[in-house]
Amino acid sequence: MRIFQRDKYILKNKNLKVYLFLILPLIIYVTFFIIPNIKTIVYSFVEWDGINPVKKFIGIDNYRRLFGDILFLKTLKNTIIYTTTIVVFDVTGGIVVATLIYKKTKTNITFRTLIFLPAMISSVAIGIIWSFMYDANVGAINFILEKLGIEFLQKHWLSDPKLAIFTVASVHIWESFGYGVILFIAGLQDIPKEIFEAAKVDGVNNWQNFTRITIPLLKSTIALVWILSTIFSFIAFDFVYVMTRGGADHSSEVLATYLYKQGFRYNNVGYSSAIATVLFSIVLIMAVFQLRVSKEY
Amino acid sequence: MRAQSPNAVKLVFLILFSTVILLPLYIPLLNSFKTMEGFFSSPFSLPDDLELNNYAQAWVKGNLFRFLINSIIVTSTAVLFVIFLSSMVAFVLSRRKALKTLNRVLFVFFLMGIMIPPQVGIIPLYLQMKALHLSNTLLGLIIVFSAYHMSFTVFILYSFFKNIPAEIEDAAIIDGCGNFKLYSRIVMPLSRSALIASVIFNGVGIWNNFIFPLVLITSTNKKTLPIGLLSFRGRWLSDYPIMFAGVIIVSIPLIVTYLILQNRFVEGLAAGSLKG
Q1: Spatial CA neighbour of A280 closest among A30, A39, A31
Q2: Are the Cβ atoms of B255 and A277 closer than 8 angstroms?
Q3: Closest Cβ opposite residue A140 in set B27, B85, B179
Q4: Does residue A25 contact residue B88 with C-beta atoms inside 8 Å?
Q5: What is the pLDDT of residues B105-156, one digit of tens each?
Q6: What SS3 class is residue A46?
């Protein structure tokens, strides 16, 4: 009885009316975000074309189908290649560029502004621009290579099945690179200057400075950029859709474009949802891993 | 000489780097002022005379004006709406006198969205929007953006709200401030920098968003700039000068805003990408 009274007392002193603020946000968030995502999981267990009123429950058949679908396995492989290429550049290149320009001088700030500029441009505009740059016949890249007298490097950048995925990845790097640099700069500015000064006094050279001091102290930023870059390239859709539509015989198809095609072009809502669920699970694992890592540092 | 050499290496490296960033922007700009013949004969030279016809064509025949208006309507409304909704959530989550356990659950629930890629629910979303007669409308697009950008904005605002000193809140309550007044007169005005960061982060994301209008919008007069530009390419596939004029028109508004407010942008977007 006394405990009950205490509970009542606590509740009375709590601000409960404040929860009224949540009504509208909850309605919007649940209806237009939570429910569609839950439906994806539900649809992954049915066979459905999106139109027919009847959805046929087929258990885990859609998932079973994934393992026999050569195109899905190819797409998964492409996505991993695409992601790895981008992450390597974003992380290593990002650190190098950030170490060069992290001090707040005028030139450095101009470079910082410049490096971030591509992130302001819509992916469609970027895709169109780079489709021209990489065009085999009239494109700027092959034109420059010809002028430099190294014609043998001219390639069918977007239609060569061996190259297409790397070509699109390079465009993604062009756009996303600035984010990594900005985060690394923030990380570098947090390192106390005294550490570098002390190292200088001790006769540490630039390379040792970089490998023994900068890298270890940047560990948590490296982990952050690495995981963000991984997640964003793993779910990438825009550049592939605009530049190749997955083309050159699916050589540049990634998970996001493949699930889009399965859903909207072939009306395989169930199968497409299974791909989406797989994509989601992989990203979730990566995100949980990120939380683990960022807690460790 | 020895002391200077690292600097020289750095300079060469940065110049090369800037070329990689600027060349793909410079070439479309240059060629958007040329005729087709001028473009094909010398894609790298300066234009002989300024051919503004490409811009006129892109603007009028390409419907870019309509797309621009739609983009402005969708982005501004959605940004306001998402900040309105998210700030209320962040406000509740950051109340110290509210229920601790419930708030924890709500925190996880609202922030869960950060980990879910937008492509995952895209097909059910499309079907649902069609059933609600909200597909192919700007309103539908605005609502979808608000829902999808909420998690992230809640996160940015909550990190800021929870650091507002408890004394300010206590003093306001003693003075008879109700929840609504506390929200509108105290918490919101104190959080200007977080609100600006949210405007920038959401603004850039929504303005450039491609996948939602691609899926939800079909009729030409409802298209936003990114998907408008895409249909543009279908029409002038090999007419590069007109296409480049379109690319320039689409990119200019955000680039100019960015160059004016660069520091705020860099800070806002960096804050945004610091999800962890």
Answers
A1: A39
A2: no
A3: B27
A4: yes
A5: 999 898 888 888 888 999 999 999 999 999 899 999 999 999 999 998 998 8
A6: strand
Distance CA A120, CA B257 (A): 10
Contact residues on chain B for A17, CB-CB shorter than 8 A = 179
C-alpha A139/C-alpha A153 separation (Å) is 13
Gap between the Cα atoms of B218 and B140, Å rounded: 13
Taking the domains of chain A in order of start, what are their residue ranges? 69-296
Per CB-CB distance under 8 Å, the chain A contacts of B10 are 100
* Two tokens, residue A69: 């679908």
Q: Which residues are A46's β-sheet partners?
A: A57
Cβ neighbours of A216 (radius 10 Å): 9
> Could you tell me the two tokens for B158?
């909550």
B interface test, pick of A75, A120, A285 with most B CB neighbours within 10 Å: A120
Contact across the interface for A113 and B266, Cβ inside 8 Å: yes
pTM for the structure as a whole: 0.87
**Whole-angstrom Cα distance, residue B151 to residue B114?**
6
The pLDDT tens digits for B3-16 are 445 678 888 888 88
Q: Which of these CATH numbers, 3.10.290.10, 1.20.1270.220, 1.10.3720.10, 3.40.50.150, describes B62-235?
A: 1.10.3720.10
At the fourth CATH level, the homologous superfamily of domain A69-296 is MetI-like (1.10.3720.10)
Could you tell me which residues come within 8 angstroms of residue A134 by beta carbon, excluding any fewer than 6 positions away? A141, A157, A158, A167, A243
Q: Does A87 touch chain B (CB under 8 A)?
A: no
